[in-house]
Amino acid sequence: MQSNTLHANSKRELSALLDEVISLLFESLPRRDQRKWARVYLNGLLSASGKKTIRNIAGADAGSVEQSLQQFISKSPWDWTPVRRSLAQHIERGVQRPLAWVVQPVVIEKAGDRSVGVGRQFVPQLGRMANCQQAAGVWLVAGEAGFPVEWSLSLPGPWTTELLRRRSAGIPDAVRSRTPAQDAVQTVLRMADTWQLQLRPVVMEVSNAELAETMETFTSAGIPCVLRVDGSLPVALATAARRKPGLYATSAREVIDSLRSQRRLVEWRRHGRSDDVVTPLASACVLAPPGEEQPAAAPVPMTLFGAWAEVGSPLPSEFWATNIQDLPLAQLFLLARLTDRVALDFDEVCEGVGIRDFEGRSFRGWHHHMTLSSVAHAATLLALRGQKFAEPPPARTEPTGGTRRAVRTAAVRTAAIRTAGVPASGPVTVGRVHGDPVPAAPADARPAVGPLGQPRRPAPLSVQASRAPFPQAHRLREFTS
């Protein structure tokens, strides 16, 4: 779907939309002229045809307008974080109740070597070496729509170690080189800690080598997660002796395939489709090896689940690991499939508002452009759904237990003392998903420290406080095979 869908609307309607967006999201910009150029840039993202370069956005008024936009995007010192935070808060409180935060990697191939963060590197999503930028967006996602609200740009080593290159791109001193997954995890932690959003499960893909570190980080922070992994991930059943030789000789694919007699069939609806599909699922409580940085650390406990997603395939083809223990397997699977919703909205809306089109060389300019493109994505998607950007939030009922912060604190505290569990076998009844009370800690709950005074590893998390109702368009039922 092209971004010029909004161009068919009257200029008056587009002008009113831009007025709403600027007043709602850009109050943090201190100067009137900055808000003016934000409006001009958004207008170009929403209405200009073709690639969303600064010259194309300036249109017939190229010259002084182009120079002013270049200054506003690449050099003006306005902080993009408050705008993104306002966008996320507006979406959560006034547009939709997200089911999850989905991390979507974005690969932006480049011809030269001047754009910030560009480098020749191996890209898992492409399966090859590429000269590109690697970024990740954090999306607030429900069954009907997904909205990017925060971004990270991964910088190859030379961009942080070569002083001249670092200074020419204006890379802040605090920014370091990390893998795309590490950057995404740090981004999620910052959002959870400072953005005043209701805690949601994080859905993302990680390499097998980074699974243990990612799972440990999220669990320690009290953040529920569903992480897609490769079937070659070495694991052991949780019942196995922890010091048994060859403990991790079994792969995730082999463990899930061995449970084919216990599979449950889930009927669900693909995003953007009207037909229902049936997918077999199986799960097991497993131990994953510690990361390469801590080879002597204890194994990492988690729930592994897999799906026979390819029609006619005798083997399971998709695999996820999670620290969530209180959602039925069918709902965990539905959370995992929210990546399909993001991919759909990325192709149909986000590409059209120029998410890959920034041609500048500065770190600040890249983040400014991604911020404005995210706002343009939200405005476009809401317009296509017939929803006004400034609609009042619907009436809502807080979960039992008081304020969001109190509920979240109680959930994290409860999660830290609950023992790990394996999903029950047999048919699962999908009950209510929102408004459940936070469970009290069991009478035999473990203390926070072990017998030698060492802190215990957090148990798999409860998401009672962060649930949202699954949309009617994605009703599902689960039954044994």
> Based on DSSP secondary structure assignment, what is the total number of beta strands?
13
Radius of gyration: 23 Å
Share of helix, binned? 25-40%
Report how far the terminal alpha carbons are from each other. 39 Å
Tell me the series of helices and strands, N- to C-terminal. Answer: HHHHHEEEEHHHEHEEEHEEEEHHHHE
Low-confidence runs of at least 5 consecutive residues? 1-5, 396-460, 464-481
Global mean pLDDT: 80
- What kind of sheet is the major sheet? 13 strands, mixed
Strand content: 15-25%
SS-based class: alpha+beta
**Inertia-based shape:** globular
Total of helices: 14
Walk me through the structure.
This protein is an alpha+beta fold and 481 residues long. Helices cover 35% and strands 19% of the residues. The protein has helices at residues 11-25, 32-47, 54-58, 64-75, 81-95, 157-161, 163-169, 180-194, 208-220, 252-257, 329-336, 338-350, 363-384, 404-417, and strands at 100-109, 119-123, 128-141, 146-154, 202-205, 225-229, 234-237, 250-251, 264-269, 276-288, 300-307, 318-322, 477-480. It is globular and about 70 Å long. The model is unreliable at 1-5, 396-460 and 464-481 (pLDDT under 50).
Features:
alpha+beta; disordered N terminus
SSE arrangement:
Elements: H1 11-25, H2 32-47, H3 54-58, H4 64-75, H5 81-95, E1 100-109, E2 119-123, E3 128-141, E4 146-154, H6 157-161, H7 163-169, H8 180-194, E5 202-205, H9 208-220, E6 225-229, E7 234-237, E8 250-251, H10 252-257, E9 264-269, E10 276-288, E11 300-307, E12 318-322, H11 329-336, H12 338-350, H13 363-384, H14 404-417, E13 477-480
Parallel strand pairs: 1-5, 5-6
Antiparallel strand pairs: 1-3, 2-3, 3-4, 6-12, 7-8, 7-10, 9-10, 9-13, 10-11, 11-12
Helix pairs in contact: 1-2, 2-13, 4-13, 8-9
